[in-house]
Structure formats: C-alpha cells, structure tokens
Design brief:
It contains 7 helices and 2 strands. It is an all-alpha fold. The structure holds iron/sulfur cluster. The site of iron/sulfur cluster has 13 residues, from loops.
C-alpha cells in the first residue's frame, strides 16, 4: 500500500478504505491470539467492547448536536439528527409528566441506547447502515456477499453516493487535501489520456463529498 501511494499520489483515499477494511478483518478474527482457535467468550467480550466504544462516541455526537454544533453532512447525518431530536423530545415529555427528573442526563442516555442507532466510525466517513435493513447500501449493490456476513462491505464503500454515509467535520480536511493533490497531478501536461481520465473520475467523487458540506 505504501508503494502504491508513493507511485500513485492521490490514492490516499483508496488506501484509507483498504486500511479500514483490514482493521475490520483483524477485529473479525474472533480467535485467541495464543491458540488460534475460535473462542466464543473472547468474541463476545470483543463485540461488547466495540459496542460500548461506539455508544460512547454516539453520546459525544448527541451532546454536540444538543449544543447546536455541526455533527455531520449527508443523508446519514440527517437521519442521525432526526433520531437525536426524537430522543430529546421524548426526554422532555418524560420530564413534563414527572416520569423523569430534570437534569438527569441518564434519561437521554437510556433513550439513546434504546434507539439502537447503528453507526460505524471511519477515518474518511461514518457508516449508518442498519444491518437488519441494508436497503440503499451502495457497498452491497451487485456484490457477492460472503456467506454469513452481516453489515456493510467496507472495502466497497462509496461514501459520496451512499444514503448511509456521514461526512463529519473531522473528515473534511482529508477530502480537501485529496482534492488539492489530485488537482496538482492534473496540472502535469504530459499525463497520458487514460491516467487523466482516471484522475478526473477520482476528482469527481471527491468533489461530490465536499459538496455535501456546501449544500
Ligand atoms: S457504502 Fe454505505 S453502507 Fe456501505 S460502508 Fe459505505 S456508507 Fe456504509
């Protein structure tokens, strides 16, 4: 991957996708390191730890959204904001009817947990695909899904086109850097036509991402 990035500057995004995939595969190997045999207890421990970490980050996003901060762009972010608004509204109702105490943040936490909002955090985008309802997930369109696999195929992620994708503010600098890098490469007048067409296609996808912020 390092060699590819060196030889084809501008491919950082593709490499990032691959790294996300590699990390997922590493975590998906539910074996104990010592004996390399399947260990259901270890697998459950790992799943629980990942779910808790995801929930912690979801709570951070909820708090940021409640403070009026921008938490993301794109259709996935719109759905997340709607889910957060519903949680806040329900919490208010519970407090108004005396079923919950004012100032008790655990009310929101508990409602948030019950929404079971699915989110996978990534370096280039976040994915909100619901494993029980994968409709609209671009990565599994026309894909051969391995037997027993649930959830997105991260190495086929199409963040610029998928309704489940969230572009978070922390992702934006990476996409802008990619756009600058691609534009620099396109300035080379000696580029072969097919290489230029490839760069143009990459640039188009990158611009689709950046436009989500400007919409
Ligand atoms: S294509 Fe969509 S569903 Fe698939 S990994 Fe990317 S954001 Fe998630």
């Amino acid at each position: 991957m390092a060699m590819l990035t060196r030889d084809f500057p501008g491919s950082e995004i593709a490499v990032g996708m691959q790294l996300k995939h590699v990390a997922t595969r590493a975590l998906a190997n539910r074996t104990t390191a010592g004996y390399m045999v399947k260990d259901p207890a270890w697998a459950k421990h790992l799943d629980d730890a990942i779910a808790e970490r995801r929930f912690d980050r979801l709570k951070e996003l909820f708090a940021a959204d409640s403070r009026g901060e921008a938490i993301g762009f794109g259709p996935g972010a719109d759905r997340m904001r709607e889910a957060f608004a519903a949680v806040r509204q329900k919490a208010e109702e519970l407090r108004a009817t005396g079923q919950a105490q004012r100032g008790d943040i655990r009310v929101e936490d508990s409602l948030l947990r019950r929404t079971r909002f699915s989110i996978r955090f990534g370096k280039l985008n976040h994915c909100t695909m619901n494993d029980d309802d994968p409709s609209g997930a671009k990565c599994i369109e026309d894909a051969i899904v391995p037997e027993g696999h649930r959830g997105p195929l991260l190495d086929r992620c199409q963040p610029s086109r998928c309704a489940n994708s969230i572009l978070a503010p922390e992702h934006l600098p990476i996409w802008k850097a990619e756009r600058a890098s691609l534009n620099r490469l396109r300035d080379d007048t000696s580029l072969p036509r097919n290489r230029r067409a490839h760069l143009d296609a990459q640039l188009y996808e990158v611009n689709l991402m950046i436009k989500k912020v400007e919409q």
